[in-house]
Amino acid sequence: MPEIVLEAQLGRDSGSRSSRRLRREGLVPGTVYGHGIDAVSVAVGARDLRNALSGEAGTNALLSLQAGSQTYLTLARELQRHPVRGGVTHVDFQIVRRDEIISAEIPVNLIGEAIEVQHGDGMVEQQLFSLPVRAFPADIPNFVELDISELTIGAFLRVADLRLPDAVTIDIDLEVTVAAGLPPRIEIVEVPEGEAALVADGEAPAAEGEAAPSGESSSDSSSDEG
User: What totals of helices (H) and strands (E) does the chain contain, helices first?
Assistant: First the structure.
């Protein structure tokens, strides 16, 4: 996985006032940490950071922070976002080494069409959307795909059915369900209590405007005959 170079400013002032000023200037405040170093305060361009994390690798992209005379190989972790606009307001950069195994989460993408499920008016339910894995930074896949073409109603596809490179290990129980073929949904119609009693006695309730069943007279008709 190639590195993405990001220019970073060192020595930013701490505090909310300073952070607001940086954001107005188009910068995102951040912190670099890991491997025993004291945490370093930095600021990176908001557009550069957005472009770096919008590729296929997402937050698993290797970021080479060029901070003055220092260069840090990092991954973006703990992104804080604005509750309304959604933009990144702060980011922690974790220092990594190419020769160490790290943990990451990659998206799970379903491919193919579950024809048997469709023909049975069922539906495919995806239950696992990201997969925790362990690998060297350069070996972390951008995503993993699961073919659901052979899925049938009542069947399941599990983590064990995923195919990953040998250099990647899965950090979750292999029996966890990824996708399931569900049967058609049955709509339950509530019947009023009085009508339910008639149905239980083998009598269907008369629809509005219909005559009462033969052998029975309505209260109105009996009063007219009297």
Answer: 5, 13
The sign one gets for the Cα dihedral 135, 139, 141, 142 is positive
Fill in the amino acid letter for 76: A
What's the angle, vertex CA 22, arms to CA 11 and CA 77, rounded to 5?
75
Query: CA 50, CA 224: separation in Å to the nearest integer?
Result: 83
Q: How do 27-34 and 88-95 pair as beta strands?
A: parallel
Strand order across the 177-182 sheet: 123-126, 177-182, 156-158
Q: How many beta carbons lie within 10 A of that of residue 159, not counting itself?
A: 19
Residue spans of beta strands (DSSP E) within the chain: 4-10, 27-34, 37-45, 63-67, 70-81, 88-95, 102-111, 123-126, 130-135, 144-147, 156-158, 169-170, 177-182
CA dist 70 and 93 (Å) reads 14
* 73-to-7, 81, 156, 202 alpha-carbon distances in Å: 12, 23, 40, 77
Distance (Å, rounded) from C-alpha 77 to C-alpha 53?
11
Residue 20's pLDDT is: 78
Which pair of tokens denotes residue 150?
């052979």
Domains and CATH numbers, the chain: 4-96 (2.40.240.10), 103-182 (2.170.120.20)
- What tens digit of pLDDT does each residue of 96-116 get? 999 999 999 999 999 999 999
pTM for the whole thing?
0.70
Q: Which residues have a Cβ under 8 Å from the Cβ of 97 and sit 6 or more positions away? A: 35, 73, 137
